[in-house]
Amino acid sequence: MEGKEEDVRLGANKFSERQPIGTAAQMTEDKDYREPPPAPFFEPGELGSWSFYRAGIAEFIATFLFLYISVLTVMGVAGAKNKCQSVGIQGIAWAFGGMIFALVYCTAGISGGHINPAVTFGLLLARKLSVTRAVFYMIMQCLGAICGAGVVKGFQPSKYQMLNGGANFVAPGYTKGDGLGAEIVGTFVLVYTVFSATDAKRNARDSHVPILAPLPIGFAVFLVHLATIPITGTGINPARSLGAAIIYNRGHAWDDHWIFWVGPFIGAALAAMYHVIVIRAIPFKSSNKC
């Protein structure tokens, strides 16, 4: 036990957090972690790779399953005569968060487990993937979401239309500004968690702390849903909102639909900037290179 405790102590203190930004101490040659190069802006070679298309298929299937389970859960709560006989808002939040946990776990090694155009957009801004891959992922995510909601409607078409089909819109009593703000902050929480949970620097520095990346990501989705379901039904995922809106296809679902694209993309951009500029200070490190 003493040997293990010593390993933990050394691991915890190997990377000091007291060094000023951009100092030579942070960039010594003997550190375990080296900053990976940014992804190329455009990588046409990906288009001839099977792994590229396999990743897109994984995003399609994951988003399909996400919409299938989540929309069915939302409809189950909306259609219950007595809310005590349903899983309630907490159950909806668990369904969304739990599915993200499971699906990120299943697809992280294939596509990175984005399952959300806002997550893909944030990672693109941080230069974690190319525009080629980002656009392909977003298309496959949206197609998967449409198919997932479509299957739910195919099972119970009349109930689907009667129960709003899981579509997102700003709830009565809230303004469009309230809805936009909720989507921005909620997506910021999610994308910030994604960056933190998948940060290779953190894994190198905190290797003594076991972490399963899908767990905090799924938990973030759960918490955001608890907070914002009463406001917007919680989008924070443009593909999820688009899939339900297209299959439901009623006026009020489209009236506020722009909020569920603009809000998540702004939130993702802010999270990417915060992670790159403040948390990782990558521009400062680059400017100090000789």
TrEMBL record:
Keywords: Membrane, Transmembrane, Transmembrane helix, Transport. Belongs to the MIP/aquaporin (TC 1.A.8) family. PIP (TC 1.A.8.11) subfamily. Its main location: membrane. It comes from Papaver somniferum (Opium poppy). GO terms for molecular function: channel activity. The keyword Methyltransferase does not apply. This is Aquaporin. PROSITE patterns: MIP. It comes from the Eukaryota. It is found in: Membrane. NCBIfam families: MIP.
